[in-house]
Amino acid sequence: MQVRLIALTAPQIDIEGQSLTAEGLMAYCARVSSPHQESTDYEKLLAYCIAHKHWSIFEMADMTVEIVTSRAISPQILRHKSFQFQEFSQRYAQAQSIERYTPRRQDSKNRQNSLDDLPPETVAWFDEAQERVAMESMALYEEALEKGIAKECARALLPLATQTKLYMKGSIRSWIHYLEVRTDPSTQKEHRDIADGIMAIFVKQFPVTASALGWS
């Protein structure tokens, strides 16, 4: 799993001689009817908007991140319909690698949960099984390509653990909702690790908003 920041909304105006940040832009737009629109002090304003659920102002700035994960996890991410996505296409480009997972035991009381308490011999078996599947499926996939079989057909030989890359762009409002949902313990660990990585980016780029949300 890899996550990195790709882009932020870049305001084209300065306030009091300072370049406006993406976070500052949200406050600037929120003050459209205020005589104090040019103020650079917006900590209380954004906290007020969050406390009173004035979410529309958080649509004034966007953030784009790059995510490297597996085909098992990317469909979970793509369910967030308020975002725009671009994903690596196995129709046009050759798959390069297959990710490995650390196995966990199924929680018998909660099908959305898994427990990290498998015996070492079971973990070893799963690791070996993953390696066999990865080697054989990739070998067959590459052989299919050598035989002239189209990538869009050959990809049927690849497992869900095949690595993919996607770009995810959304408003700060969308990111707030995504992070609230996907950092929750009910989210699959591999997806939660991605959300935690994005959370770290969010807190750095939007410190006032993150503080008001209780995230920092």
UniProtKB/TrEMBL annotation:
Question: CDD domains of this UniProt entry?
Answer: ThyX (cd20175)
Q: Where is this region: Disordered?
A: 99-118
> What's a single GO MF annotation on this record?
thymidylate synthase (FAD) activity
Domain of life of the native organism? Bacteria
Q: What is the lineage of its organism?
A: Bacteria, Pseudomonadati, Chlorobiota, Chlorobiia, Chlorobiales
- Give one GO biological process term: methylation
The record's section on InterPro entries has: Thymidylate_synthase_ThyX, Thymidylate_synthase_ThyX_sf
Residue ranges annotated as compositionally biased, kind Basic and acidic residues, are 101-110
The enzyme's E.C. designation:
2.1.1.148
EC class of this enzyme? transferase
Keywords tagged on the record = Methyltransferase, Transferase
Q: Under what name is this protein listed? A: FAD-dependent thymidylate synthase
